[in-house]
Specification:
The complex is a heterodimer of chains A (87) and B (355).
Chain A (H helix, E strand, L loop, with lengths): L2 E4 L3 H4 L5 E3 L5 H11 L18 E5 L2 E2 L11 E6 L6
Parallel strand pairs in A: 1-5
Antiparallel strand pairs in A: 1-2, 3-4, 3-5
Chain B lengths: L1 E7 L2 E7 L5 E7 L4 E7 L6 E7 L3 E7 L7 E2 L15 E7 L6 E6 L2 E5 L7 E2 L1 H10 L9 E8 L2 E10 L2 E5 L7 E2 L22 E6 L7 E5 L3 E4 L7 E2 L12 E2 L8 E3 L17 E4 L7 E3 L17 E4 L6 E5 L5 E4 L7 E4 L5 E6 L2
Antiparallel strand pairs in B: 1-2, 1-28, 2-3, 4-5, 5-6, 6-7, 8-9, 9-10, 10-11, 12-13, 13-14, 14-15, 16-17, 17-18, 18-19, 20-21, 21-22, 22-23, 24-25, 25-26, 26-27
Classes of the chains: A alpha+beta (87), B mainly beta (355).
């Protein structure tokens, strides 16, 4: 199964796990499975339309990806807040 | 007499006082509008204000008398064919020849004026780099917010972009190359860091007496360059946090820098509810906390990128900063002691000393 890597504060919503094996064939499926397995993450990464939130970046290995990107069983998904120059 | 130009979410406030504890509002302009940045060109005495109207967008205003009429500059606006509009004017910086000024905007672009700020044109070479490099915005937009002229040499310039790193020119803006070496974007997965241009510069200043030296507040650390911005070394090890936005220097001391750390990217307030300015006099090898007179209890302040200015130099260095709480603080002894300059303005976006 693909591995999802989380940082704070998402990590805290997933039982403190830095990495979690989650099933799914696309990025969207993996993230919905993450919500199923760790319900406190619901709504944090995907919005109510199932889209990755605007200020969240999901990397598949080293590339930023969207919901419909195909995911292989040995892939790594990193979920991070977008870099923010809002000051 | 000291004078501060304080940009806020509700207009420009011109504060005057003979000591930090004795300031008052001399003039207010652009009532109710966001003043992103205001600065006076010391060469001409002309004052500039970047004003963003919530309904009618951004414009650059200028005046030769802050108590009198303001005029709208011709630009900065994108030329036809770029299919973009200026969203925000982040900074205006005087250049090294008469009438030369630079402006940095969102979406990240450099504009140049050669007539004292009355009209502006796009630097096409940097714009081409932006298109070629597919620069990406941070949370606050794609902002060109730091512009560092080289004293005495108008051909050389360094600019900082959130989030597209440092760019350098040695031919007056005719061509640009990146200054990325040494910057570590810890906000990216390790495997995505190599070769990325997603480098979130928060602020950058040049030491005027040693022009090849620059300091940078980055997204998560503080860096120093000793080769004009080509390469960077992390100097944040002894700071309580590497995260923050503003940065200032003492123009008389190339080993000096001052930062105001915030807890971190996820919690952008002064650590522990205590307000401290950290200064170095040894190029970042060590940092000393300055807080005598600053709030120490339940003070969870956010100090924005342009909200930290200086006046004078050396032992008489003035340090002035404002917070989104609406407070402005000042020191005229290089940070040894502080006073509240203004306790209840609107959220502060920028602070620059004008006298």
């Amino acid at each position: 199964m693909p591995i999802v890597y989380l940082r704070a504060p998402l990590r805290d919503l997933a039982g403190g796990n830095r990495q979690i094996a989650v099933d799914g064939a696309t990025v969207g499926e993996v993230l919905r499975c993450l919500e199923r397995d760790w319900p406190k993450t619901t709504g944090w990464i995907l919005d109510e339309r199932g889209r990755i939130r605007r200020h969240v970046n999901v990397f598949l290995n080293s590339e930023t990806v969207r919901e419909d990107t195909t995911v292989g069983p040995h892939d790594r998904l990193h979920v991070l807040p977008s870099i923010s120059g809002g000051g | 007499m000291h004078e501060l130009l304080v940009g806020t979410k509700k207009g420009l406030f011109v504060l005057r006082g003979d000591a930090p504890q004795n300031f008052s509002v001399a003039t207010r302009a652009f009532d109710g509008q966001v003043v992103e940045f205001a600065v006076r060109d010391p060469g001409t005495g002309r004052t500039f204000a970047s004003v963003t109207n919530g309904f009618f967008g951004p414009r650059l205003m200028w005046t030769d008398d802050v108590a009198s009429e303001w005029h709208a500059a011709e630009g900065p606006t994108f030329p036809e064919g770029t299919d973009l509009a200026v969203e925000r004017i982040w900074v205006v910086v005087p250049g090294e020849t008469d009438g030369l000024l630079y402006a940095g905007v969102d979406p990240a672009a450099l504009f140049v004026s050669r007539d004292g700020g009355e009209s502006w044109s796009l630097n096409e070479a940097l714009w081409a780099e932006r298109i070629e490099g597919d620069w990406q915005p941070g949370f606050g937009g794609l902002a060109l917010h730091s512009i560092c002229p080289w004293p005495g040499d108008p051909q050389r310039l360094a600019i900082g972009v959130s989030a597209a790193g440092v760019w350098l020119t040695e031919d007056g803006g005719g061509s640009w190359h990146p200054g990325f070496a040494g910057l570590v974007p810890e906000y990216l997965p390790e495997e995505a860091r190599e070769g990325t241009n997603q480098l979130c510069v928060h602020n950058m200043r040049r030491a005027p007496d040693r022009a090849e030296r620059l300091f940078m507040q980055f997204h998560g650390s503080v860096y120093r360059s000793d080769d004009a911005g080509e390469t960077w070394n992390d100097v944040a090890a002894s700071l309580p946090s590497g995260f923050g936005f503003p940065l200032a220097i003492d123009p008389d001391d190339p080993d000096s820098a001052f930062v105001i750390p915030l807890t971190g990217s996820e919690d952008r307030v002064t650590p522990g509810g205590t307000v401290r300015v950290y200064g170095t006099r040894d190029g970042g090898a060590s940092w000393n906390a300055h807080g005598d007179g600053l709030p120490v209890h339940d003070a969870w302040l956010t100090i924005l990128r342009q909200a930290f200015g200086t006046s004078g130099a050396g032992e008489d260095l003035g340090l002035w900063f404002g917070a989104t709480s609406g407070e402005v603080f000042g020191s005229v002894d290089a940070g040894a002691t502080w006073s509240t300059v203004a306790p209840r303005l609107a959220p502060v976006t920028s602070v620059r000393a004008s006298a």
